Amino acid sequence: LEAGSIPDGPQVVRREPASLRSARWFGPADLRSFGHRSRAMQMGYAPEEWTGKPVIAILNTWSDLQPCHAHFKHRVDDVKRGILMAGGFPVELPAISVSESFVKPTTMLYRNMLAMETEELLRSHPVDGAVLMGGCDKSTPGLLLGATSMNLPAIYIPAGPMLRGNWQGKVLGSGSDSWKYWDELRAGKITDQDWLGIEGGIARSYGTCMTMGTASTMTAIAEAVGMVLPGGSSIPAADAGHIRLCSESGRRIVDMVWEDLTPQRIQTREAYENAIAVAMAMGCSTNAIIHLIAMARRAGHAIGLDDFERYSRKVPVIGNVRPSGNAYLMEDFFYAGGIRALMNEIREHLHLDCLTVSGQTLGEAIQGAKVYNADVIRPLSNPVYGQGSLAVLKGNLAPSGCVIKPAAMDQRFLKHSGPALVFDDYPSLKSAIDDENLDVTADHVLVLRNAGPQGGPGMPEWGMLPMPKKLLKEGHRDMLRLSDARMSGTSYGACVLHVAPESFVGGPLALLRTGDIVSIDVEARAIRMEVSDEELERRRAAWTPPAPRYERGYGVMFSRHIQQADEGCDFDFLRTEYGAPVPEPAI
Ligand code: FES
Ligand code: MG
């Protein structure tokens, strides 16, 4: 059967074993294939184990410095068990783990590296389908971007959220409570001893951050776009159901290969609209915008900030999970019915006929899913936040847009004007911020620039700029902040992010000066600096571009090819339709 010749729709066509991609390596009676077979036998496999069977790559992002994926070291055996049961041949191919907690300056520098690695691992090896094991923030888009461009049948297994944190009987949420209690410590409200207790209690099991951070956002998106078995993205990492998800995904991928159920058949434009709707309803991380745009464009759909804006106006936040919600965590979300129940609540905003990896349509996959706690997963009639979680602002400070998360900020900053206090880099901001004589009021707009895709480099999660100590002591816990950086999905506050184009490449943010008045109006989706066009022209003429960040290594490639935030920060040359198609490798 020719690739791409299977008609869309629910009918299932079974491929012939001889048509398997791996058969090109293992089948022919020639010297090359002799080599492949003899080397497989060197590893102890008998020809019966692979002949006529789909070879399934398991892309495992486990590492000893990746706490969110620690269980993948063992879960991979459950995946293999499933593949073997269904008559496939599993092969584990390790991939970079992009550990959010340890990789510096930011994992965002390496998302595209994982995407390239994924695509090339699949292309260069004798495999017919892939199980993608990820979960920590950038691992989900990284794996999916690569698998989408390669377009072999693929299924995603999210690592699952870790258990709720606990300290002195109080529930702790990943990220969110670190920021919160850090400010309490700096304000003198808790002791060093308390802080140590929080350090030991906030991350109690393997698994991803259990707030609605980037990890939970992106795994929900992976499911909404159809790439995860129904309900899979909400299962806590430490739940036995997660083990069963692994073996079931192993069984299912083998059939997906026989059915030639490729990412392109699943990831339609409508599937991406579903992902945006779900992201909004979940109270998603701002990072969702960047990753979803990149992913959709790989699948061939021109999704942009306007699509987010459209959905943000119509889909309210109904997932009451921190930081947009005020009380609950992913474990509670799972007990309340999980993602299937949430999608069922917003079904009027979804395209229900989209296909999923299960072989069912989305409508079938969520049919009958019930909410068991209507405070955790709210009905549309009683949302956590009336409009979508994110808003896209435009104006002379951000002609290509910027992003704010109105659901997780002090509402008095939704419409605000104040003088800018501008820092050119993170170290100078950090060294000034605890100065109790800093010339700053709660009405100021704290600004960091040169923190975008090229300037960061890698657009680090610095966007929740630290509150000046002076203001903390005065009792303030929020102020308007602005940068071309990202922020963690577990962060909160009146933070304007992703200003595009970034200052490092000469975006207007580069021209802002301390004392200029910055105004935002979230309802009007507007952001401005109150500086005349003539004055901006004068400043532009005097502006000199900063020195390049890299002169050798991966960073050079990154700097030359990274696209701006509003375009998804993909490398230009990774766009699936860029240049002539990459051929199958010669064997
Ligand atoms: Fe891995 Fe948050 S650090 S998901
Ligand atoms: Mg994060």
UniProtKB/TrEMBL annotation:
Coiled coil: none annotated. Residues 375-569 form the Dihydroxy-acid/6-phosphogluconate dehydratase C-terminal domain. The keyword rRNA-binding does not apply. Its EC number is 4.2.1.9. Pfam families: ILV_EDD_C, ILVD_EDD_N. The lineage of its organism: Bacteria, Pseudomonadati, Pseudomonadota, Alphaproteobacteria, Hyphomicrobiales. GO terms for molecular function: dihydroxy-acid dehydratase activity; iron-sulfur cluster binding; metal ion binding. Keywords: Iron, Iron-sulfur, Lyase, Metal-binding. Residues 53-364 form the Dihydroxy-acid/6-phosphogluconate dehydratase N-terminal domain. This is Dihydroxy-acid dehydratase. PANTHER family: DIHYDROXY-ACID DEHYDRATASE, HYPOTHETICAL DIHYDROXYACID DEHYDRATASE (EUROFUNG)-RELATED. PROSITE patterns: ILVD_EDD_1 (PS00886). Belongs to the IlvD/Edd family. It comes from Methylobacterium currus. The keyword S-adenosyl-L-methionine does not apply.
